[in-house]
Structure formats: C-alpha cells, structure tokens
Predict the 3D structure of the following.
Amino acid sequence: MSNLTTELASVATAVDLTGTVYGYLAILLFALAYILVPFENVIHLRKSKPVLLAAGLIWILVALAYLGAGDTHTAHEAIRSSLLEYAELFLFLLAAMTYINAMEERNVFQALRAFLVSRGFSLRIIFWLTGLLAFLISPIADNLTTALLMGAVVMAVGGDNKKFVGLACINVVIAANAGGAFSPFGDITTLMVWQKGKVHFAEFWVIFFPSLVNWLIPAAAMSMAIVNTGPKMLDEKVSMKYGARAIMAFFLLTITTAVCFHNFLHLPPVVGMMLGLGFLGPLSYHIKLHEGRSERYDYILGTRGAESINPITTILKSKLELSDIIEKVAMPAFAIDNDHNITHWNKACEEFTGLPAPKMVGTRNQWQPFYDKKQPVMADLVLNYMPEKAIERHYAGHFKRSTYFDGVYEATRFVPSLGENGRWICFTGAPLKNAEGKVVGAVEVIEDYTDKAAAARQFDLMKKISRAEWDTLLFFYGVIMCVGGLAQFGYLAVISQYMYHDLGATTANVLVGLLSAVVDNIPVMYAVLTMDPSMSHGQWLLVTLTAGVGGSMLSIGSAAGVALMGTARGVYTFGAHLRWTPVILMGYAAGILCHLFLNARLM
C-alpha cells in the first residue's frame, strides 16, 4: 500500500490542483461540515452527518478535477486506498467495541462503579482514584468508555456538590486522554499510528511518563480546590455475571493476538482482532447454555435487541428443572404450587426482600415483603380460572397481558414499604404447566424499576456509548474520505512543507496538539499520516503524545470531554473547563519537555 500511496502522491504533484475551483470548493465543504461538529450537543445534529455529506461531495470534485486534466484512473485508485485504510480500522474498532459491550453486559463496569461508590471515600480520594483509574483503564478500554465510566462514579458520589463534580470531570477527561496516548488501544489516533507502522506496540511505553506528567500537574493543582469532606455513603452492591472474568481474559488474549499478528506474522493487526472476536462466539454460546437460554438465538455479538426479554421467558421455555433455572435468574423470583404455598424462593429474592428461603418456602407469606396486610400477589392471581378480572381489581389500569405467552400478566405498582422512600416494582406472573398442559403452580418475577430509573440517570453510559460508537465509526469514515480528498488536491503537501520544513518538526508537532483542542484529533492525525513528513522516530512519538493529550485543553477537544458534557449537563461545561485551561496547558508543556528530555536520543 505504501507503493500505491507514493504513486498517488507523485501524480498529485504532477497535476497541481490547489488553485482550481474544485479545490477551493472542497476546502469550503470541509470547513462548513466541520464547523458543525463541535456544536453536536447544541444543535443536536450528529457529527457523522455533515462529514459524510462533505466526503461524498469532495470526491465528486476530485473526480471532476482529474477528468478535467484527462486522468480517469488516479481518483479511482486513490479512493480505493482510503477505503482500505478505513476498512482495517473499522473492523479493528468493531472487535474492540464488541468486547467492551460484552463486559458491560456481564456487569464488569457496574461492579467497579458499585465498589467505588460504596466505600465512603472522601471527595479528594475519589478525585484521585477516578483520575488514576481513568489513566490506567483508558489504554485498554479507550478514553471515551473510560471517561463515561469514571464520570458516572463522580456524579454518583458528588451528588449536588457541583464544584466537586465539575473538577472531577475535568480531571477524568485529562487522565483518560493522557492514558490513551501511550497505547494503541487508547485512542483512534494511536491506533492509526500503530497500524501505519510509525510506532511499534512496545514503543508506546516510551511516552508513558510524559503522559503521566501531563495528567499529574493539572490534577495536583485542581485537587487543592476540593474540600476534603466525606460524601454520603451509597449502599450499592453489584456482582459480575457468569462469564465476566472469562470475557476479560479473552479480551486480553485478543489484544495479544493482534500484537502477535503484527509483530511476528507481519499481518495487519485487524486480522488478529477479528480472530479474537471469534473467541467470543463459543464463550457467549456457553454462557447462553449455562443460563438456560438454549432455545433462543443470540443477538449479534456486542448488540442487544430493542427490548429486553423478561426472565419469565427463560423460565417458561427452559428445559431445565424449575429449581435449577429459577436460581439462575438474575432478578428476584419465586414459585408457588396450586395451593398457593411457596415452593421456590431464589437467592436474588432473598437479597431483595431480606427474607431467607428457609423461612418462606412452605408458607403462604409471599405477600409480606410488599404489603402491610395479606392480599394476593400476581402469582396467586394467575392461578385463577379467569385471572384478568381479579388482576383488574388489584392493578386497575396498570397491567398488561403478554402477547407471547398465554396466561402471563405484568403489572406495576409503587410499594411504599420497600426501601427508605418506597420503590416502583414490576410484577410478572405466569402459570406453570406440566407435560400434559395442566396448571401445577405459578411463578413470579420481580423487577425494581426505581433502581432502573436511577441507573439510567447515573449509569446509562453504555447506551450512550452504543449510539456514539456507530456515529463515531461513520464520522471516522467521513473524516478519512474528506482528508484523503483534500490530499489529492495537493493541500496537505503544501501544509506539510510549511509546518515540517519551514517551522521544524518539534514546533509542528506541538502545534498539532494545540490544533487538536479545537479540531478533533482524528482528522488532524490522519492528515499528518497522509502528509507522511520525513522526521525522526522521537518526533513520531511526540506527535502521538500531543495529538492524544492536546484535546484536554478544551472540553470540546476530545470525545471524552464532549461525552461528559452530555452526561453532566450544566455542571461540567465548556466554561468550567476553560477556567482550568492555563493549568492544563502547563501539564501539556511539561509532558512535552519530559519527552524531549527522557527520549532525547530518539529525537
């Protein structure tokens, strides 16, 4: 591919298109499209849409320009080269994102969050812990995912303390960007540098200490502004689901596979990542069998359907014994026989109600956790010959019948006796039948919608990531095609000549980082890689560092900052971040000086 790029560059040099009307129109289109990107959260227009439109129009202009010069071949070969580069990065990111989504579904991130918010750490300790974890997690999980995860912790612990939440969010953004700079998996820009072969996998560690300094200096300054008080301790317990540790191990194995493919087999890393994605297939099938879901097809790896499936479906369709399957249900569930005696009371039900199974099984006290006096629960009602009339009396206007299973009903009710301030509960009941179709009992599954609503406010990050991922991938396509098109007009060659020849590599690479604070670092880094200036290995490490951490200077300078502005709306703002920009700039300069000193032999 390097030979093809060289040939294209020579053709572009031979046919000077920088002064053509087509070239000027291409620059105008890119500028107009990119002006809309930083205002995504203001105008509610996803950043991928304008750049996708601009990309298509720019390549029309490229084709017309070359046709005008009598060349019918160059534009075709150039766009194929850009598409190949995008395809490699797209599949690589898709595999990584799938693993992140799989770990989220197995409660890996929720368990970490629950551990942090339930320990009663002081605000200053939470500030440093979230920053440190953001710095250490982002090299693996990418800076966007990490920032949203740690931001959820900050908002859960900080509560109404807006000053703490604002400072801690700034700290998380800086730490996540700094941590992502010394790993190919930490940011799209570092991934591009690695896949282009400019920096080898192990060589990213050379900029570990400069990245650390970049975070520590502003973090130390901001921590002094935090009142070291203890927040309200939150009682939250989340356990990782079955298979979570295996998925984490497979993800590390996938990373190793990608590195080995690149270093030893001299194959593109994306091939190793896709092989790693294949590892997840059999594991997900094993988890499905373990949870008694062998009758259902999985969704595509890393995705979920539009609606979650209630565990009642799993119970009714499972071929396992009731005692086995009901214990595997993650939600509170119990079963009764035809005489309304409790026969099963799962562990989740014990934890939710505080009533142990030995005390409940064999009794008719299924009403006790929810009501002050004895009355039938949903499981009791579905045993009736005509249950809907009885259900209507108890849940008037707040129930619905299942469209998939006969005799299954779902109702919602506020239960004031649960928790400190009451809970909103969804009750789903279904009759149990034997092999002859005779009703032999009923099962009830309980879902706490209060916690679900709270989780949506505090930890609805993976749904945001799921939406942002595809938007980011399409945005990435638009950027690569736009920049590739501008390169064909010869503009990048002109910029490269000015920055890397006239100004010098060090000055140019420092400016790249400053530019990343205003313009997304993806097009900036892709432009540098497309220019492919002749510079030392130390300079390639420097531009990797500056492009990765430069976006921290403004809240709109990185995906992590933009995402946190959305989740901590009104608290973490552009203005709040801007007040600390001078301190962040000090960290930026210190990180560069650290690199120039520690890695002088490479410069």
User: Anything to note?
Assistant: The chain has a mean pLDDT of 81. The first strand starts at residue 333 and ends at 337. The domain at 311-453 is CATH 3.30.450.20 (Beta-Lactamase). The first helix runs from residue 2 to 14.
